[in-house]
Amino acid sequence: MEKSKSKLAAFMEDKFVPVAARIGSQRHLLALRDGVVMIMPLLILGSFAMIVIDFPIPSWIALMEDTGWSWGGKIDIIMDATFGIMSVVAAFGVASSLAKSYKKKDGKPIDGIPAGILAIAAFFVIVQGDGMDSTVLFVAMAVAMFTGEIYRFFIQKNWTIKLPDTVPEAISRQFTALMPGLAILGFTWLAVAVPMSYTDYGTLSHWLNEGLFSWLRNVGTSYPFVLLGTFLEHLLWTFGLHGSAVVIFPFFEPLFLAVTTPGTESIITWCFYENNIWIGGSGATLPVVIYMLVFAKSTLLKDVGKIAIGPGIFNINEPVTFGLPVVLNPILMIPFILTPMVLVTIQYFGTVIGLFPIMDIMVPWTTPVFISGFLSSSGGIGSKLMGVAAQAIGFVVAFFIYLPFIRAWDNVNVKREKGEATYQ
Question: pLDDT tens for residues 260-273?
């Protein structure tokens, strides 16, 4: 048994982890992650606006109506300024991040800002007024990838307009973008926008959203696919890699965000994953912290519990992951991987049968558990309370999955502290 474990550990460390590390550092995936991160403040601010207008207290709703200000229409202004421009901001973020990941011939990083600006322009050429919200997020990212690559190609080939050295750098830099900009906008207009205008779809974004991207969203937010992603994310964490950054942020978060809109019919949204699966952080480790604070016997677990409770309440669990540790710990690796997969299953099918509400309102990822469950549903007070109940059930389930494993690890450390343990 020990021999098979050693072979498995050796395979994971020698073969799997290096490949995953290379994937996680791949420039295009990092650019996607950076673009998504850039729109997060807009999503959270827009969600706060929705909470204000739909807060489930009758007296508050009555106050909003009695003012005669038509608050619904006023809040729409904020919605347009946040949700409405998220794809535009993502286009800028992805293209600028991708371009600056390359270097010019002199070894200096490429300035990514012009590429981001050109990506916005190309995006507008492609969508032709189709809307800028989450429905065209994938189009924005695809355009940004294309723009970033074309822009860096022109810069690296020195196919740019060069002004004399006496011209201020701020001005010269803008002329640098003219040649790649002509190629990018010329191609998107002549090869994409004009031909698509003669089709029944009208725009490329409309065609993609009804075809390829619609299929991607359906697959990416399906239970089997999310379960696989959850497994891979947490498997990587147990080997010391940031599984969320390698798997969830570049591949799943854009899919989840595209369906995270009030009134969505999609069960798996970004709120679903962030609030129901990451209870205390990746691995749903907040119940472990509670065990360490209340029941632990070993000094190590007691000390880690005291350190981890503050961050854990706000869904930061590095003290648990690396201090307990979970990483490369065969006792705790199992529940760390298993617990989130069980929570995905419970929360998904609980929502399917109507027991739990759909989570469709963004809240900051640091919002403590139970509060996030209350705020993440756009339904009435009953729906919000069931959101809390869903998290409470997940919390209890996670606690009992971890219990035999964390208790065993506690006992190992008790013996180790007494000088009786042989476990290394």
Answer: 887 888 999 999 99
